[in-house]
């Protein structure tokens, strides 16, 4: 450390360098600088110290990745976030008497939240977790009971390996999340929540947060299959789940 | 997630979405279009918060998703980068920090141990590893404050507001950072 110039502390000089010194301190530092070579040296040393820090963070900036493409996609049609908002206008929709109520304006709340959450999944989220199949069976049965929706006869789907079931929650309601990995180790989730809506016979495809989603309603339960974009198998998988559930939960 | 707390109203009619308030649309566009440009500096801020590359990746992405989700709160014409930093800090403190610390194996309260256990697996590039070792040579509070003041050019008052701390705390952190950096330099140059 430098020999101390008694008149100014390092903190005083720090304030001066950061442009935070009051007018009086600025004036006295600058007056002293005119005659005090030591002071000028101390200031230079302090400058060099912060320059080291700045240099490290310039390098960090060089290492920074670009924004993931799904972030710019996420909002391209102006839809996903707006969809999330749309849940609150279900009531408002009633005012527009002509609207049919099964339209997406009602449900997207939970779907957007699920998609947002699922977008954080990477292969490692699931490849690390290989739970005991027997335990998973028990858990599935418990989940099914709590949800009131049969999950015991899941179809075998080519290219999807079941990993685990979890109970999540949305607005105080249980939400079943069954996770799978594709043959390419991409995470896929099947989510089910009670919505009280009527059965839909068609599957609605959508892109939410850069992920492909396929959703439908089976006898009061909203069902959503979500996975990587541009995976052709996903829509077929959704169709197989829909048929199975139509059979087992009709 | 607080999806119920929204200021704007949007009607979704099948495939067509109509914003009832024009401001909401502007906010969304400003956030959507600005994110890519701000992303590297946001990521750097996340590095300062987390001290670790993969945590910074997760935090930066989570921050952007959160920003898109609550874009309606963004006022176009104000600093998007600063707004993103505020969100990042809140996500870090409220959602990620505890888990990040738990995940650092054999963590017992010192940054050195955390670095030693993480560095070999998290960072294979030697050059990058050195940089990250330098980053974690200062404690989180100091490096975040110093990043805003020394690198991002925030005033102390702006830093205090961004980090939600008193201005006196900014001053003492900056002072402590200068001392720590000085002693690192002294050690490196053998002047002490």
Structural class of chain A: alpha+beta
Question: Strand order within the widest sheet of chain B?
Answer: 1-2
Oligomer: heterodimer
Beginning-to-end CA distance, first to last residue of chain B: 52 Å
Task: Walk me through this protein's architecture.
The complex is a heterodimer of chains A (250) and B (192). Chain A contains 10 helices and 6 strands. The longest helix of chain A has 27 residues. Chain B contains 8 helices and 2 strands; from the N terminus they run E-E-H-H-H-H-H-H-H-H. In chain B, a hairpin with a 2-residue loop joins strand 1 and strand 2. The longest helix of chain B has 29 residues.
What attributes does this structure have?
heterodimer; A: 250 residues; alpha+beta; six-stranded antiparallel beta sheet; 10 helices; 6 strands; 20% strand; disordered N terminus; B: 192 residues; mainly alpha; two-stranded antiparallel sheet; 2 strands; 70% helix
Can you lay out the helices and strands and say which pair or pack?
The complex is a heterodimer of chains A (250) and B (192).
Chain A: H1 10-17, H2 23-35, H3 37-63, H4 69-73, H5 80-86, H6 90-95, H7 108-118, H8 123-127, H9 133-147, E1 160-170, E2 173-182, E3 187-194, E4 204-208, E5 211-218, E6 221-227, H10 233-248
Antiparallel strand pairs in A: 1-2, 2-3, 3-6, 4-5, 5-6
Helix pairs in contact in A: 1-3, 5-7
Chain B: E1 10-13, E2 16-19, H1 22-50, H2 53-69, H3 80-103, H4 111-122, H5 126-135, H6 140-151, H7 156-163, H8 167-189
Briefly summarize what is shown.
The complex is a heterodimer of chains A (250) and B (192). Chain A has 250 residues and is α+β, with helices and mostly antiparallel strands. Helix content of chain A is 45%, strand content 20%.
